[in-house]
Specification:
This protein has a single domain, classed as Jelly Rolls, CATH 2.60.120.10. 19% of the residues lie in helices and 37% in strands. It has a 6-stranded antiparallel beta sheet, covered by helices on one side. A hairpin with a 6-residue loop joins strand 2 and strand 3. Helix 1 runs antiparallel to helix 2. The chain is globular and about 45 Å long.
């Protein structure tokens, strides 16, 4: 998916309405992710949607704040606060995901699974500064997210599922050797 850059806005209700319309459009998962990315680009909120308590945390940690779950379960929005040094486990997802960076820089390491399934192969890395929007749809979405900067990063993730029902968008965690 192409990466977009958006200026921040502050109205979460406008974003929910735009994502609702994007999800209702016909097409497959990748099409939906693209439509949702366009909606997020047009309605990217500012980090001011989170309270100072939500932005706080200990170095090396990250915390998600569920902002909206669509009543029909078609999508969920989560703001993730990445403290300096935070890093996720390598994982993939059950559904499409679109994210936009509201503050700081979000770093992502990409992987593919070896043909025999016994190792991960490095497939590249990205860094997303404020205003950058990106997304993906499985398969082929194995990654790790981290904050290598000295500043707090905040990103808004929109997942094509009901997180109240399933708890997490992660499908599988990968604890395999990594090959360049």
């Amino acid at each position: 998916m192409n990466t977009l850059t958006a200026p921040p806005t502050t109205d979460l209700d406008e974003l929910v309405t735009a994502v609702r319309a994007a999800v209702a459009r016909p097409g497959g998962r990748r099409d939906t992710a693209s439509h949702v990315a366009d909606a997020l680009c047009e309605h990217l909120p500012s980090p001011a949607l989170l309270t100072p308590d939500q932005l706080a945390g200990e170095r090396g940690t990250f915390r998600g704040h569920r902002l909206h779950v669509e009543p029909d379960g078609s999508f969920s929005m989560v703001a993730i606060v990445w403290q300096p040094g935070a890093v996720t486990r390598i994982h993939d997802h059950v559904t499409w995901c679109v994210f936009g960076v509201l503050a700081g820089v979000e770093y992502e390491d990409l992987y593919t699974l070896s043909e025999d399934g016994t190792a991960l192969i490095e497939a590249g890395s990205n860094h997303a500064p404020v205003g950058e929007i990106s997304g993906f749809a499985p398969p082929g979405d194995i990654h790790r997210v981290r904050n290598d900067s000295p500043d707090v990063a905040v990103s808004l993730h929109i997942y094509g599922t009901d997180l109240n029902a399933i708890g997490s968008s992660a499908r599988r965690y990968y604890d395999l050797p990594i090959h360049p």
